[in-house]
Amino acid sequence: MKNSKTLTLVEGAVMVALATVLSFIRVYKLPWGGSITLLSMLPIAVFSIKHGVAKGLGAAFVFSLIQFIQGITDGLFGWGLSPVMLVACIFIDYLAAYTVLGVAGMFRKKGAVGWIAGTMIAVFLRFVCHFISGVVIWKSFGALWDGFSTDNSVLYSLLYNGSYMLPEMVFTAIGAFALFEIPQTRKILSTQDK
Fold first, then answer.
1. Are 140 and 156 in contact (CB under 8 A)?
2. 28 in helix, strand or coil?
3. pTM value?
4. Confidence (pLDDT) at 146
5. How far apart are CA 89 and CA 80, in angstroms?
6. What separation in angstroms does the CA of 165 have from each of 37, 108, 147?
7. Average pLDDT value for residue range 53-73
8. Closest Cα to residue 69, out of 16, 115, 28?
9. Alpha-carbon span 48 to 46, nearest angstrom
């Protein structure tokens, strides 16, 4: 029994490390934060699919702490936020947004549809966190792209965060499906925790 707990911890650590490395491979980066990465959320989803939501949330929380540290290196403290806004940003844009990825295993026993649905829900919940932050903390409006601007912070947050989270969701769901289609991977991930 002790060996299985150790193995689960090691698997979680490896998946968090892999997710972290993949998060540095940015296919597209927006000017005010947010980027499309090379499937950086997939390892967390895979861990949750194999080990369940509770353990998935644990690994995702560790990943959220690493993303917060990465946010510091990207200039988080230089964004001009008040102390209250900074704390809210840390909680919503980092801790909550990345921890919710751990729910990806919620339908793990439902086959390919469950893997994809759980992964998409997890990534959608991350989008919701960033959307709420955009409306409540950032209250952004103005020019989004050349020739398009809006004075509506809800629309701005929806479009801005959706512009990178929607592709992330699609790519991560495709990645989950691709892993399900590989018989060896499906067998490994189907030996799930109870």
1. yes
2. strand
3. 0.93
4. 77
5. 12
6. 10, 22, 22
7. 96
8. 16
9. 5
